[in-house]
Amino acid sequence: MWKIADAHCDTLWEIGVQGTAPEDCCVTAERLRSGGVSLQTFALWAGPKGPADDPAGKARAMVAAADKLGVPIWRGALPEEMPDGPTGVFSIEGGEVLEGSIARLDEYVQRCRVRLIALTWNHENEIGYPSAQDGPGLKPFGLHLLREMDARGVYADVSHLSEKGFWDVVEHAELPPVASHSNLRELCDVHRNLRREQARAIIEKGGYIGVNLYSAFLAKDRPAVFEDVLRHIDALMELGGEDVVGLGTDFDGIESWPEGLGNPADLPALCDALLARGYTRAQVEKFAGGNYWRLLKKGEAAAKICI
Questions:
Q1: pLDDT by residue (tens digit) across 121-172?
Q2: I want to staple 2 with a disulfide (CB 3.0 to 4.6 A). Which of 15, 267, 271, 274 is the partner?
């Protein structure tokens, strides 16, 4: 069985805001266990209306809903080795959750030990501009926030960020950039995917790229198939991503995916397919979870401020 880690899902939104029963979500404790998922990242999503709809209040509701997952969440230091059974960590998707406040950042670090913050979702906020807009780079608060996140060992997640904002992260952040759930634009030309030079920059910095299983980010103008996921992985590996590429499934945040990759229990089949494709067991182990685990441990070690 592979030890798998996933950098993004939206399950807490479904449970804490939408009121979905935990057992009716895509990501469940049983499916994580069945799929060998040792570490699942649970996003605190700002919501579809962004700053206009009390994102901080919704985030609090999602934190409270974490008790319903049936999965222990690491709110302190991680163990030395990746756990054997399902566990979780928190991330933030949409920096408007912070309401332009470093004190709010400290609240999430202290209460949740949040590991990543997607600086934007699909709306402009106090930090910067989304990938859907050809906006400027990070705003003054965004640049200040990067320094404060570095000091706390929290990664800047660029998956929804504008291109100019992306390059600001590359230039100004001490910690390497993370694209928790993005694919390659040259294989599927949508704004949410990374350009080749962006992916190369993440790889050169030693960050992380989580392959997204959303059909629309895998193939354009047709339903994606299993092979499309492998094509994106191959292309990222060819750029030198062996130590950087992993999973960012986006489960419970997507409405379509390749057949055979619809929930965490299906993920070992992807790892098996990579092995059959000619990747070594060591390479597949890195992809499955080793690269993401390394990243999180590096973030912990880099923290200069303990909240």
A1: 999 999 999 999 878 999 999 999 999 999 999 999 999 999 999 999 999 9
A2: 271
Instruction: Express each pLDDT in 32-88 by its tens digit.
Output: 999 999 999 999 999 999 999 999 999 999 999 999 999 999 999 999 999 999 999
Q: What's the pLDDT score for residue 306?
A: 74
As a three-state string, the secondary structure of the chain is: CCCEEECCECHHHHHHCCCCCHHHCCCCHHHHHHHCEEEEEEEEECCCCHHHHCHHHHHHHHHHHHHHCCCCECCCCCCCCCCCCCEEEEEEECHHHHCCCHHHHHHHHHHHCCCEEECCCCCCCCCCCECCCCCCCCCHHHHHHHHHHHHHCCEEECCCECHHHHHHHHHHCCCCCEECCCCECCCCCCCCCECHHHHHHHHHHCCEEEECCCHHHHCCCCCCCHHHHHHHHHHHHHCCHHHCEEECCCECCCCCCCCCCCCHHHHHHHHHHHHHCCCCHHHHHHHHHHHHHHHHHHHHHHCCCCC
Percent pLDDT > 70 in the chain is 100
262: amino acid identity, one letter: G
Cβ–Cβ < 8 Å for 211, 162:
no
- Crossing angle between the packed helical segments 163-172 and 140-152, to the nearest 10 degrees: 50
- Check: pTM over 0.90? Answer yes or no: yes
Please give the CATH number for the structural domain made up of 4-302: 3.20.20.140
User: Which residues have CB under 8 Å from 61's CB, separation 6+?
Assistant: 16, 17
The CA-atom distances, in angstroms, between 268 and each of 187, 214, 276, 290 are 24, 18, 12, 14
218 in Cβ contact with 224 (< 8 Å): yes
Distance of CA 263 to the CA centre of its chain: 16
Query: What CA–CA distance (Å, rounded) separates 297 from 292?
Result: 9
Phi and psi at 20, nearest 5°, equal -70, 140
